[in-house]
Amino acid sequence: MRARRFAEARDAIERALALDPLNPRTHRASGLIAYASRRYGDAVAAYRQALQLNPEISNANAFMGNSLMLMNKLPQARAAIASEKSDMFRLTSQAILEHRFGNPAAAQEAYAELVTKLGDAAVYQQAEVMAQFGRTSEAIDLLRRARAVGDAGLTAIATDPMLDPIARDPDFVRLVKELGFA
């Protein structure tokens, strides 16, 4: 999936779901594949299944909220994001959602809390927020910082819908190539 081989990823996750249909992590992985493939309705269904099997599974609510947000279902997205227990994923999604809702003060407050609480542990997520805020150079600088600190979020750089606003920027394209994802 991270190499944009979505059909192969879908085939693999379908086999995994057939073999282990009660594993919430497999359903969450299915949601991540659908999300990265821009199939947001399928992602929501997979995250709902993961949460039905394990209501405590990490980041499923946030990614379901992101999927709903990208489908312009903002009230439903807000409810899903508010249910996310992980500060990293909840605050990232909340900042982006509030920006989309037209609440710049709430968006900035969530972003500031993300930076204050998690710092370098969430540099990649900070870049997602800046990309969604339309602050391209700041987003790219944060992605470079993520690379410097070894942020694992960079594995999603080539397929992350939250980075779509900067995906055509030459500096972003160069960074993706340098990381070996293009």
UniProtKB/TrEMBL annotation:
It comes from the Bacteria. Keywords: TPR repeat. InterPro entries: TPR-like_helical_dom_sf, TPR_rpt. The keyword Heme does not apply. TPR repeats lie at residues 24-57. This is Tetratricopeptide repeat protein. It comes from Sphingomonas daechungensis.
